[in-house]
């Protein structure tokens, strides 16, 4: 008989087989065969047994069985047997015998087993309703059952793949995929933002440590990045979050009320440029507009109250008498349907490259990201530096439109984080 062994995962699967009879028709068989499988994110094993029909020479199925690999990953060794069953073309279930298996699992230092999968309801064979607790391989404080600082630092180092002292979006997503978790960019961004106190788009050791020492998402201080509630720092963070939420609410309402489309956004830009058509070239100051200008720029103004225009103006002006209309236009590209990533990039690049040099500086990228991330310069500075580090491949100090688009595709949610909830 021949046994085919298949391992299954979401991104990786392997197929191998034991040796069949040495000579078909003879009584000389190779028993107790050893096979070796490489594991990426596999969580189940399928055993298929067949034998050669002496008349036709075809492989005839004897039976198959499926086995969860999670108990193996948990314990490192599994000695068990599985019953083979074969369903005929007529739907009849036939017993096919039993296969004895001795499985061992070897992993590189620091590698964790894949997370529980939907079809695997237990880590213990024979139990369908119990998830057994996993013993942590990290040092615990015997007095209060918490992680020691050395253990937290070791865990942080495992996630910090490039050893720069921070955990970024790409590093977290890579680790989660290797653990068998498939998450979207939006979900990874949300995980980072829950710990990202200073808004730089990554997690420092201090922020990671705060999470490890207060890991309950229901606690208020966890959502504040480990900052104790009711301190001046936590109050300031809460105010910034409320301001960003207010901007999302107002811009979403404006887009819905005015039924805004892409042409309306381009119309705003045309209106600003037309006001300076007599000038040989635009400057950054050319884009600054007042409250009355906002009222004129908004499409379908009759549907939008002057109170809403005033709210938009107040949200963007930061105490000044004018606002940068590029903030308004760039923000709307993140709320109005129909804008693809490349189109957003080209429009933004055109507005901020006012001298037509073909390059954007770090300052211009910061200005742009303040609009797309609905936050202040001090909170966006680190994100802008990370974006420039990815985009400025030739280290010239500026980025071209092509470099800009490539970096935006690599880090889409860093430049244009989603602002509207999916239904």
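Sequence proposed for the structure above (423 residues):
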């Amino acid at each position: 008989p021949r046994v085919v062994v298949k391992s299954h995962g979401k991104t990786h699967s392997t197929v191998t087989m034991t040796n069949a009879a040495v000579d078909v028709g003879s009584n000389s068989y190779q028993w107790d065969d050893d096979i070796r499988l490489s594991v990426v994110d596999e969580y189940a094993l399928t055993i298929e047994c067949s034998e050669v029909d002496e008349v036709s020479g075809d492989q005839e199925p004897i039976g198959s069985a499926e086995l969860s690999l999670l108990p193996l990953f948990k314990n490192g060794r599994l000695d068990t047997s599985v019953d083979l069953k074969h369903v005929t073309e007529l739907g009849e279930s036939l017993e096919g015998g039993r296969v004895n298996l001795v499985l061992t699992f070897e992993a590189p230092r620091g590698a964790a087993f894949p997370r529980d999968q939907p079809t695997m309801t237990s880590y213990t064979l024979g139990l369908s309703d119990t998830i057994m607790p996993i013993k942590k391989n990290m040092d615990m404080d015997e007095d209060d059952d918490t992680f020691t600082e050395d253990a937290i630092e070791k865990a942080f180092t495992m996630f910090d793949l490039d050893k720069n002292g921070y955990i970024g979006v790409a590093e977290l997503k890579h680790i989660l995929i290797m653990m068998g978790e498939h998450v979207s960019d939006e979900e990874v961004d949300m995980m980072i933002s829950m710990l990202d106190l200073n808004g730089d788009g990554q997690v420092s050791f201090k922020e990671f440590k705060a999470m490890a020492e207060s890991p309950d998402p229901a606690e208020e201080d966890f959502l504040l990045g480990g900052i104790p509630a009711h301190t001046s720092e936590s109050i300031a963070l809460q105010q910034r979050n409320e301001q960003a939420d207010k901007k999302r609410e107002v811009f979403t309402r404006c887009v819905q009320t005015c039924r805004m489309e892409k042409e309306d956004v381009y119309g705003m830009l045309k209106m600003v440029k037309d006001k300076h058509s007599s000038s040989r070239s635009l400057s950054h100051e050319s884009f600054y507009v007042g409250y009355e200008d906002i009222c004129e720029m908004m499409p379908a103004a009759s549907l939008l109250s002057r109170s809403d225009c005033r709210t938009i103006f107040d949200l963007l002006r930061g105490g000044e008498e004018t606002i940068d209309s590029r903030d308004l236009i760039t923000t709307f590209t993140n709320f109005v349907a129909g804008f693809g990533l490349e189109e957003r990039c080209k429009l933004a690049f055109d507005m901020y490259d006012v001298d037509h040099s073909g390059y954007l500086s770090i300052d211009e990228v910061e200005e742009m990201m303040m609009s797309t991330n609905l936050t202040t310069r001090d909170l966006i500075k680190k994100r802008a530096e990370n974006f420039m580090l990815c985009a400025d491949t030739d280290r010239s100090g500026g980025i071209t439109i092509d470099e800009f688009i490539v970096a935006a595709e690599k880090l889409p949610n860093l430049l244009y984080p989603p602002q509207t909830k999916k239904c």
